[in-house]
Specification:
vWFA_dom_sf; disordered C terminus; 397 residues; transmembrane; single chain; VWA domain-containing protein; Rossmann fold; 9-stranded mixed β-sheet
């Protein structure tokens, strides 16, 4: 018989409790022993951690003499008319001989190394992007300062602009375009009865129709036979912006000189073309020698309101036409622009915000009538002496 069979139930119960406690104790002791052995092994095997600062060994070569770098001298070879500095920095020469244009004389500058290409420690420091060429970022037209990134000229090319008017207009417009800085955009819209982009070909068919040829496109215009009643047949031409590069302004100068005058006068069509441009212009230079049909002041007010809404400045010029002064002044005043009245004698009145700012005399004296020189009378030949006088004393052969 086994030992367990001889124990009572209570004794068996106590025996089981003792066995369970012994088992738990053995497990705990085993875990502690394993942890202790692990800690000892880690202490023995891991290397000690010391704060060690490595020694840095450097080598420095001997000093090498710096050799100066030869920088290429760049020059922009552009044959353009000299740009005038701003009025606060310029001195104007006054002379007894009157010229077509007042040319400001720049301050005397002692020749030094070029400062426009920078003065840095390395090649290329301070190089500009070309901005500022042409009079501090602006140009002028009949004495008006013209500013903005996008400049639009709306110019009267009607038949009434013949003679002295077209001479003044072509010369001043070419002068203004040639002085545009190369970072500007510009365009020219010419108008008479029809309106067209400068450089287009205008084919007049009497006084009632015209065709504007622009590249491969044609734009038809019609009239009831009156100079002011012109309307486009279909869509209007859309003017693109041009960059004021040297080649482009020279091309525009040729167009200004060669474009022929056309019959009729209508203000509204070219101004509508101006507001069709994308993006809109910053400044519009509007010049005419005639009145618009109907209510010119009303047209000026409506145009001024639209321009002001789009932050467009409109400068106006009335060329030898005092009757257009009210409408042109209204248009300029409503947009913060400047109005110039060029009189028949060549004098100019600059008006801004309803006030005459300055009056400039004629840029050249009025031509005087020169009477044709009288023919010089011919001297009479000395009379021949009679033969009977021969032989007298004092007579010479």
């Amino acid at each position: 018989m086994s030992l367990h069979a001889q124990l009572s139930p209570e004794a068996l119960k106590r025996l089981h409790v003792q066995q369970r406690n012994s088992t738990i104790t053995s497990i705990i002791i085993s875990i502690l022993v394993v942890l202790l052995i692990g800690i000892i092994l880690l202490w023995i095997l891991l290397p000690p951690i010391d704060n060690f600062t490595p020694e840095i060994v450097s080598y420095q070569a001997g000093n090498v003499d710096d050799r100066p770098v030869k920088r290429p001298q760049m020059q922009r070879n552009v044959e353009r008319k000299p740009s005038s500095p701003s009025s606060s920095m310029a001195r104007v020469i006054a002379s007894s001989t009157v010229s077509d244009l007042a040319i400001p004389v720049p301050e005397e500058i002692t020749p030094v190394d070029s400062m426009e290409f920078g003065n840095g420690d390395d090649f290329g420091d301070g190089w500009g992007d070309g901005s500022g060429w042409g009079g501090g970022g602006s140009t002028s037209f009949f004495g008006q300062e013209v500013r903005g990134s996008r400049i639009l000229y709306v110019i009267d090319y009607s038949a009434s602009m013949g003679g002295e008017r077209q001479r003044l207009m072509r010369k001043e417009l070419a002068y203004s375009v040639l002085r545009l800085p190369p970072d500007k955009q510009f365009q020219m819209i010419f108008f008479a009865g029809p309106a067209w982009v400068a450089g287009d070909k205008v084919q007049m068919k009497g006084k009632q129709s015209a065709t504007v040829v622009s590249g491969g496109n044609k734009f038809a215009w019609s009239s009831n036979g009156k100079a002011h009643k012109w309307d486009p047949k279909g869509k209007r031409e859309k003017a693109p912006w041009l960059r004021a590069t040297d080649s482009q302004v020279e091309t525009s100068e040729l167009i200004i000189k060669r474009n022929k005058l056309v019959w009729g006068t209508n203000w509204e069509n070219p101004l509508k073309m101006a507001f069709d441009m994308e993006p809109l212009p910053d400044t519009i230079v509007f010049m005419t020698d005639g009145l618009a049909s109907g209510d010119p002041v009303g047209i000026a007010k409506r145009t001024a309101a639209l321009a002001k809404k789009n932050n467009i400045v409109v400068n106006t010029v009335a060329l030898m036409e005092p009757k257009a002064a009210d409408a042109m002044e209204t248009l300029a005043k409503g947009t913060g622009g400047t109005f110039v009245l060029v009189n028949k004698d060549g004098s100019r009145s600059t008006i801004k915000n309803g006030r005459v700012q300055k009056v400039e005399p004629a840029t050249q004296p009025a031509p005087k009538k020169v009477e044709p020189a009288k023919p010089t009378p011919k001297k009479k030949a000395p009379a021949k002496k009679k033969a009977g006088n021969k032989g007298k004393k004092g007579d010479k052969k």
